[in-house]
Design brief:
about 260 residues, DNA-binding, Arc Repressor Mutant, subunit A, mainly alpha, 2 domains
DNA sequence: AAGTGAATCAACCGCCAGACG
DNA sequence: ACGTCTGGCGGTTGATTCACT
């Protein structure tokens, strides 16, 4: 029994990604789009699991990602959505353009969870902790006014470990429908990623190779992408974000259409 | 200055559901 | 209808960084 591993374990590199690997992956995705993650490592010349490539791209390399800590509005929205959706991080992330489920999950576990506990609120049920003895209550949608949870000046983060670059998105940027922030890429505070998306990086023909030189036609991808077209493609990233990453759907979404039923 | 513990977050793992043949 | 494959999700781990003593 047992599932077949998602990829051949032998020869597959694990651990932190190097700048070189990032280059290859970004180049490949820019050239050929996201298709068949299983084939990406081979075609891109990476010794990585396809799953790992997808994760690296979606969590770190995507051009539409915001960097830095969640701002106050985003944090409030996360808490609110968690009260409605539970640990469905991907659905929560879908409401915060530029944020990943992994990022939100981490933020929840490191900051928000502790803060709620500190305030006597059970992060799992969003009910006061002292009620825990009573029989299990069903999750009550948005039972608390979370506005009061965000203490003035803390921005939700008591820690001084970071330089609070989370405020890259101005507070009050949330729109009427609850969306927060913009979907513009902001990698300024992350030098490696900033470099990857810089013109210098993208124009570097020394790495802008055609992967392993294999024929991608079988995957429905063109093998003749020129440097120019890649640059043009990148320059259009803002627009492409709408189509390629489905960001436009966020703009048209409303909380009411959230899949509260979920599959789990 | 060095040691230690805590905090953070990128990355991995295993499972699940949908697509496809 | 069934089995396999793939992408996606949520939970967890572990390396790194930071604060404190």
């Amino acid at each position: 029994m047992g599932r077949q591993p998602c990829c051949d374990k032998l020869g597959v590199k694990k651990g932190p990604w190097t700048a070189e690997e990032d280059k290859k992956l970004v180049n490949f995705i820019l050239s050929h789009g996201q298709c068949c993650w299983r084939a990406v490592p081979k075609l891109a010349g990476l010794r990585r699991c396809g799953k790992s490539c997808r994760l690296r791209w979606t969590n770190y390399l995507r051009p539409d990602l915001k960097r830095g800590l969640l701002n106050e509005d985003e944090e409030k929205l996360v808490i609110d959505l968690h009260a409605r959706l539970g640990n469905r991080w991907s659905k929560i992330a879908a409401r915060l353009p530029g944020r990943t489920d992994n990022e939100i999950k981490n933020h929840w576990n490191t900051y928000i969870k502790k803060k709620l506990i500190k305030m006597g609120i059970d992060p799992a049920t969003h009910q006061p902790l002292h009620k825990q003895e009573s029989p299990r209550e069903s999750r009550v949608p948005c039972p608390t006014n979370y506005d009061q949870l965000i203490l003035p000046g803390t921005c939700g983060h008591a820690s001084s470990r970071t330089d609070n670059s989370s405020t890259t998105t101005p507070a009050g940027n949330s729109s009427v429908d609850g969306r927060v922030g913009s979907s513009e890429p902001n990698n300024d505070d992350d030098p490696p990623v900033s470099f990857i998306w810089s013109d210098v990086f993208l124009d570097d023909s020394s790495w802008n190779f055609q992967a392993t030189g294999e024929d991608y036609s079988e995957l429905g991808a063109s093998n003749s992408t020129s440097d120019d077209s890649i640059s043009t493609w990148f320059l259009d990233c803002a627009d492409i974000g709408d189509e390629f990453f489905g960001l436009s759907c966020f703009n048209d979404m409303d909380l009411s259409i959230l899949d509260l039923g979920g599959k789990h």
